[in-house]
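To close the chapter, one final illustration. This time we ask the reader to focus less on the individual chains and more on the assembly as a whole: which components sit near each other, and how the overall shape emerges from the parts.
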Amino acid sequence: MENISRSVVKKDHAPKMSGRSIYVSDYQTAQSGERILTGKLLRSTLAHARVLGVDVPELPEGYFYVDARDVPGDNNVNIVLDDTPVFCRETVEYIGDPIAMLCGPDPDEVERLVKACRVRYEELEPVLDLAAGQEAFFDYRFGHGDVDAAFAAADKQYDETFETGYQDQTYLEPQGMMAEPEADGGMYVHGSMQCVYYVHGALPRVLACAPEKVHVFQDVTGGGFGGKEDYPSVLGCQVAVAARKCGAPVRCVLDRREDLACTSKRHPSLCRYRAAVKDGKVTALEIDVRFNAGGYSTLSAVVLQRGIIAAQGVYNIPNLRLRGRAIKTNTVPNGAYRGFGGPQTFFAVEMMMDHIARDLGVDALAFKEAHLVKKGDSTSTEGRYHFPVPLPGMIDQVDAACDLRKKRALYSQPQTGRYRRGIGTSLYFHGAGFTGSGERDLIKAVAKLRKYADGTVEVLAANGEIGQGLRTTFPKIVAQELGLPLEKVSYNHPDTARVPDSGPTVASRSLMVVGELLRRAAAKLKAQWRDGEEQEVEERFREPDFLIPFYLDKFSGDAYPTYSWGVNAIEVEVDTYTGKTKILGAYGSFDVGTPIDEKIVIGQMEGGFLQGIGYASIEKMAYDHTGRIRSNSFSDYLIPTAADVPNLKCMLYVEKYPEGPYGAKGAGELPLVGAPGAYVEAMEQALGGVSLHHAPFTAEDTMDTIVKEGL
Amino acid sequence: MNGISFTLNGREVTYTGSAADRLLDVLRRDYGCTSVKCGCKEGECGACAVLVDGVLLNSCCVAMGAVDGAAIVTMEGYCKTERFAVLDRAFADLSAVQCGFCIPGMVLAAEALLAKNPHPTEAEIREGLSGNLCRCTGYNAIVNAVENAAKEGNGLW
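The assembled structure is written out below.
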């Protein structure tokens, strides 16, 4: 193992382990010593309506009602577009759409006041059906080759539709933000978040102030997984507007039901795949992707882009025609969740390949292997796989861990008896870093190192520790490059008043992109090092020169500089009497380049893989005919516990990326992406070779299939 | 009415508020025990778990009236014990702490388990921790850490 990969005690271990870490809900007073007012949102109870007015109860002294009229600047939260309001405009667009915030010193009284508000609505017809939704926030088309000619020449054609449901990030710490007016007229906003500069970017417009008049600090954050990418900008603007009106610090921490029902989730999807096959090979795919965007556009553009770019999987498909739409519905706006559009389309393409293979009478894994991309091949957007594609070696690694090939053959034989087994596989990638030219054109990351006179070095960057280990891995890179002991290098939670904008904590980019800036900064500092002096060095992002420029209008070029790769196998045993499924083993081989701390990376892989297994099997969330999310508590929305998947085995496979620090690539999102494909393929095998088309595939679905198929 | 008396991390205290108040809220607000986290407030996630007379309870589902005369331990007190030190090393060695939000409840769940069963099997550990949700780790590192602590702390439990 390389030195950099050796595990250390995480720098934030001690305060977290002993419960001393202060999360946003833990502050007893504001930094000024003032009492913190509690804010609670009054939310729409209808999916689509005109708001005619709100009858607000008489407010006791010291209590405030805050709505759109109190926004000093624009009532728009800057995300990708500006359609998300701070507080609703004339209409509400989903159940949970914030109308106002009630604030005051006693949380119980605030709660009572929220309940006492009467909203007068004029009900409008909501759009709730993803398949029928007409309005697309985003509508992209791209392709290559001659799809019509390939279909005309095909031996066989296939046409199937795949569906995936919501997935909630379910960070254990609910969303929470706090705003504190400062003596100089500024506003200090802090809380649980991934992207301090996203919040910082949104505030000045809303508060109608100069950017210098706000600063944003990331408190210790109890998990994010994408869920704290954009939503903290919305909540941050709401508490800032409230704090401005109240002239006092305001904190709003969501309760779990509110968080489950009203904050962004993974987009439900419908993917129709048409395939042309000639001489045993897929010659063309025509793909129609629909993502349920919800009531506002938030991050749907970029989630959809990543999803459709991945829609042909890890396979060479000579002819492709693709259309992807983010459909507006009157439901909660969906956004970022680990994998960011990839899990939906990878599920569809993996199932499609599996179904074609079975129809052709060949083993699905062998069929997939015959289509695998390799170094030098063209991507879906006619970019290049510039580096070796390690999938064959990774398949061997998984096979060695669980006898994959032998079991696939065994379980494909007819099974009888109460318990039936299956094993499924998935092959996939995660494009590392922002999609397209985002790093170069939008983010333009800057990172700094500050060396103090005593020889200690502080990392100055905007990326948030959310459990993934950045407070440890960033210093490890710097310490390694400078040849310093690790305790001499520190990284704190970012405050925009102190750190440059190194970009958001998203897209599996922090370690690979910002980590490399820090490595280069450390090399520079080493060359200039002067004992006993304070010094500062800075590095700016520059695009690798091998890249084929990406054009979003045409979806052409390198969407990513490199890829992390994954191979999963999941082995199940179905109890045909009860419909319950036991996961006998879940095996993952993951290539994220050089691990910058092996145990941290394995922790990411295990955590992500289990989230993916939850998504595939038990995490079911849906809305009813009124647009109300039904599974809004932990007794309805189940996530895996310690007892659910005891045999979860993650292995690393290292294909270094020369432009990443010590060869590291993006890691955080990859392990979630492939689980649904592997799990549902395993269920197909256990259920006698039936063809399945949706995830999650729950115990109820299993029972339905057993009954229908007479198993 | 003399209030509700109980010991909190070994210290005798008397709560004079309502007997219907939630233990979770009182611990956080009145006694500054912010290691006790609120993850769901309906007894499903375990983030607010504390020891009441040695029994692991979700403090969001305990009314103050129920703790009169009880001995309550939160992480603020438990982190000073020798048993904690063993668990601390085991969790540190395996990088078992990610976002940290579930950890105080999780560690107290480990304590409750080991106090009853000093040498649990892996399956028993998984069962013992299954009332405490963690979304970050996938649980392997936590389960292995508790297993290691049980070996390392031989005789402590």
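The helical segments of chain B are 23-29, 75-78, 82-93, 103-116, 122-128, 140-152. Residues 4-77 of chain B form a domain with the Ubiquitin-like (UB roll) fold (CATH 3.10.20.30). With these observations in hand, you are ready for the problems at the end of the chapter.
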